[in-house]
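#structure-requests
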Amino acid sequence: MKKRLNITVKEDLIQKMKKFADLKGTSISNLVEEHFEQLLKQPSKLPKEMSLVEFVKTLPKSKVDFPTDFDFKREYFKAKSKEYDEQNPV
């Protein structure tokens, strides 16, 4: 079953898409539906045989040099605690 979907698009883009759909012998609705289906079919950027840890190792190095003993988890929770305190003053 199909349902209606209302979207807002620039007027000049609508005109271009109408012409494109006519050239392709289809409707804008079909073009949008096909595009959505393609988006959902796209494979994950993470190869299945690669673990998350291996993937992270392939990422570019940080531009910031942190000390080797820097505790990211502790700093995260410290920042969150401060943020919470600022939002909820006693």
